[in-house]
Each structure stands twice: as structure tokens, then as C-alpha cells.
Amino acid sequence: MTLSIAKPLIRRHAEIGIFLIGAILVVIFASTSDGKWANLYNIGTILQVTATLGLMSLGVALVIGTGEIDISVGSTFGMGALAYLWLAAHVDPSLAAVAAVAVGAAIGLINGLLVTRTGTPSLIITLGTLMIFRGIAIALTEGFSFSVPYAARKGWAYFGLGGGEFLGFNTALYWLIIVLVILMVMLKAMPFGNRLLAVGGSAESAHSRGVRVSRIKLSAFVLCGVLAAFAGTLEAGKLGFADGSMGRLMELQAIASCVLGGCLLAGGRVSLIGALMGAFVLSSIQSYLVVTGVRPQWFILILGLIVVIAAYGDRSLRQWALRK
Amino acid sequence: MTNTHPLIQVKNLDLHFGAFHALKNVSVDFHAGELIGLVGDNGAGKTTLIRVLCGIYAPSSGEVFFDGKKIEKFHPKLAIDQGIETIQQSVGLCDNLSIARNFYLGREPVKRILGIPFLDFAKMREKSTRVIRQFGLRDNVSADDEVERLSGGERQSVKIGRAVEFMNRVVIMDEPTNHLSVREREHVNELAVQLKEQGLLVIYITHDIFQVHKLADRVVIMENGAKVADASTDAMTAEELEEVIRQGGRLVEKREAV
User: Is residue B121 part of a domain?
Assistant: First the structure.
């Protein structure tokens, strides 16, 4: 069969499944939404959502690559957004962004230290910190929202940090591309990436070869926190305000993006571009449901169903490819 | 026994895993230029002992000296940096990485551009390709293939090739000939002798008594976490050696008493 030519390709590139699913969905969405989905404005919106979710997913993909998981990213996102907004009203947005990213790094450091020092599964540790930092975000805002006054929403830094558009796209998209390139080089062409994947493949073997497993895991958690907080910064820059619930449930979307994108939850296999495609597919589905007027109460249900079907489709494809 | 002071000296080593007493007051000297057979039944503590020597486990008490200097911190990185290379039985290769990437894991050669370290793929590929050809991996296996693809013997060959390639002072082999064909076995044993002749210390763990008797200068026998005998292979026949292992320390005590 001629189709079997594609088998080795699918075996080698786990992200092909999500690209196929993405292509199929784009065709379906474009042809059934009467132009409401496939127009430049809407695509721009989808890409902006993809950019922030994607940045978060890239960080989660690194942690998954080491065989751990970070589900606290939704709260880290919220904390980053709040830190940015609170400071951007007083100081230059670029400084505020640095501080927000530092908050993310601190949360990542806490996660990483708790996981590597205590040996407790990262699922339970980050479930705890998910709640802790969500609680702090809600307490900080006390039911109100943080916002940057309109007078302060100007200047290069503010526009560059998600608060404006360049060539028709929100500036967050360009940050995503920059971060993607840096991380891809790091993962594939630098010793750090080699060791990160080794730790995820077999922590015991990596340790026996002198790799400092804890240090690698810690770095992945810190990077993940940094990216989640930076994504929160960009989202806050776009909206100009945020409340304590900012980023809630986004952690699940980020993990779904990674898994749909071909990252192995057991660790050792990471596709950054796949994770991004996963984020794009999820954002597209959301947007489709919005523009076609699906009532919000059905939203999560339908999103969940599509995720399950997509995951099953991807798995079937890979099993087919593995068959001789 | 070629040098006056031992290259590795283990003194009163104890290791507990919770309630389990894995190593009991083990003291043993290893000299450069020696091929030492480490033998004993399953669970005797052979692998545990070498995992202390290569930094995977830290002892509960006791001391280890390397080249006369006391080892204060145990980590595989430190052991490898000092030139102790270990061919582990079940660990050492990451299935998800290519042969070239496994080969250099933890000490990747880099080219710096603006101070940023990038993997030197050309070097990684070239050296690991030469080694896998030398160790007889299938012709259709390339250094870019993931280790997952390899057979048990090929995996072992990669580990051995890696240990030999980086010129070290100590090579520890934990049942290196498992999964290997007769021809590959011979090759590994020849290598062990070659390394010894080059002045390295070779510690060889095996269940094959006759093989180790033929190869080793000295045999250290362990049982239940303790060293029960330490004797030159000239001093006993392979059959006697087998008897000692079967009876544990009792026979040795008897012989010494006589």
C-alpha cells in the first residue's frame, strides 16, 4: 500500500498526528462556520490565544520531558499576570515583566525543590502549589481586579509585551516564535537538552553517567514557571486587567496540548512544535464554539469530547505506523 | 600488586538500605594493572559494592580511598571525572536517545559560539560510529539510531565500547558477557586483559567461575554482603574456587586453620 510509505515518518515524528488533526479541523471549521471562523480577525485572535497557551505548553513540555509534570502552571500564569499589572501601573512595563517572570521562576524553584528534595511525586506537589498560588491570587485581588490605567497603556514596552499588534498580529505571537526557536536549539543541540531527555528516558541511567538528575529537573521546573508567568504577563498586557481567576484550568489545556502534540507523559520524548500545534488546535476549537454560538455551558463538554476523540485518533495513527 | 599503594582502597565499608544490611564491613584493596574477579551468588553484594565505587551509592560508614585520597562525596560524575568507568548491567543507556548521544551523555563535546555550548555532532557521530563498527554492530545500525533498536548484545557492546574509548584508570565490568555470543564474549575478555596490560585496574564481576579463574589475577568472593575470601588465582584451582563459593567462607576458614 502506498500509504505505508508514511509509516516510518509517523514513527519518527510523533507530532504528525496533531498536524493531521489540525488540518482536518481547520477544513471542517472553515467550511461549516460561514466565514465567521476563517477570517483574518478571528485567526489573529486564535493565534493570540495560541501564543499564551503555547508558551505555557512549551514549559510544561520541558517538565514532561524529564518524566515529571507541572500542573501548577495555571496559577503561575495568574500570579505572573497580577505581578505584571500591579507593577506596570507604577514602573516601566519592561521592569514589571522582569519582576513577573521572577515570580514565575520562584514558583518553579519551589516546585522543583519540593519534588527533587522530598522525592514526592510532582503530580501531588504541583497540585498543592496550584491551589496555594490560586489562593494567593484570589486573596491578593480580594474579588476585585488589577488593571493598568488607560493612561499608562502606551510606549514600546507596553505594546511589545502583548499590549499591541505588529503586522496585524498580537506581539505575543512573536515572543512565542522567539521562545520556540531558543528552546528547540536548547533541546536538540545543547548538552542541557541531551541530559534533559536522558533524565526522562531513564533517570537511573542518566545518573549513572554522571548527569545531575535533580539539577536538570529543577531547571525544567524553573523554566516552566518562567514561561507560564511570562505567558500571564503577555495576556495581562493584552487585556489590561486581571482578577484572581486568571489562567484557571489553563494547566489542563497546556497538558492536553503537550500530550496531543506527541510528548510522552512518561518522559524522554518531547515535541515542542507538536505542543504548539496542540495549543493551536485547542484554541481553534474554543474559537469555533464561540463563533458558532454554542452556549458557554456546553463549551467544556464539547472541548473535552474533541480532545478525547483527537487523542484516540492520534493513538490509532501511531499504532498503525508501528505495525510492520 | 604491581604498585606499592592500592589505587582503590576500601576500608570497613557498611551500607544499609533501610533495615537491609547490604554491605557488611567490607575491606579490600585494588591495584592498578590488576584484573580482579568479583564473584559470589546473586544478592552477595557484588553490584552494590561496585555501585559505591562508581558513586551511585554513598556508604553508610567506612572509607574509600582513590589513589591515596579519601573520597568525601559520592556521585557518578565525580567518579567518572576521576577516571572510573563502569559497565553496568541494567543501567547506563537511555533507550530514547541515539547511540551517539548515549555515548557522550554527561560529557558531551561542545563547540562554543559566543560562549554558548553547542553539541559537536560531527565529533559525536564520528567517534561513536568508529566504535560501533569496531564492536561489530549490524551494518545497518548507525550512530544516529536510537538505542531502542539494538539487541541485548549490541547494547552491551555500546557500553563496553564507551568505557574503553575514554582512556580511564579503572574499568569496572558488571557481568559484561551477559547476552553476548561466544565470539563477542571472547572479544570482551581479550579487551579486559588488554586494559589490564595497559596498566588499568579492571574489576570483573561474573558468575562464570572458570572464565574468571582463567582471566583474573585475584578473586574476591562475597557472600551476604560480606567479603569471605580474597585470593590469588594461582593459589587455587577453578574447582576449589567453585567450592569456596558454594560453601561460603567456611572452607576458607578451614583452609586457613590448616
Answer: no
Domain span including residue B52: 8-94+167-257
Q: Considering the domain boundaries, does residue B230 fall inside one? A: yes
CA dist B6 to A53, B33, B206, Å?
Answer: 59, 10, 22
Query: Rounded to a whole number, what is the distance in Å from the CA of A265 to chain B's nearest CA?
Result: 14
| CATH number of the structural domain spanning residue B253 | 3.40.50.300
CB pairs under 8 A between A and B: 80
Global pTM? Answer: 0.90
Count of domains forming chain B: 1
B184 belongs to a structural domain: yes
Residue in B96, B106, B116 nearest the CB of A209: B106
User: Complex ipTM, two decimals?
Assistant: 0.86
Q: Which of residues 18-37 of A touch B (CB under 8 A)?
A: none
Letter for the amino acid at A24?
Answer: I
Give strand ranges (E) for chain A. 145-147, 165-166, 169-170, 241-243
Q: Does A190 touch chain B (CB under 8 A)?
A: yes
Which residues 77-96 in chain B show a CB within 8 A of chain A?
77-81, 86, 88, 91-96
- Give kind and range of the element (H or E) at residue B173: strand B170-174
Asked if the structure places residue B181 within a domain, the reply is yes
At A84-117, the pLDDT tens digits run 999 988 899 999 999 999 999 999 999 999 999 9
Contacts of A269 in chain B (CB under 8 A): 96
Q: For residue A291, how many C-alpha atoms fall within 13 Å in the half-sphere facing its CB?
A: 21
Smallest Cα distance from A268 to chain B, Å: 6
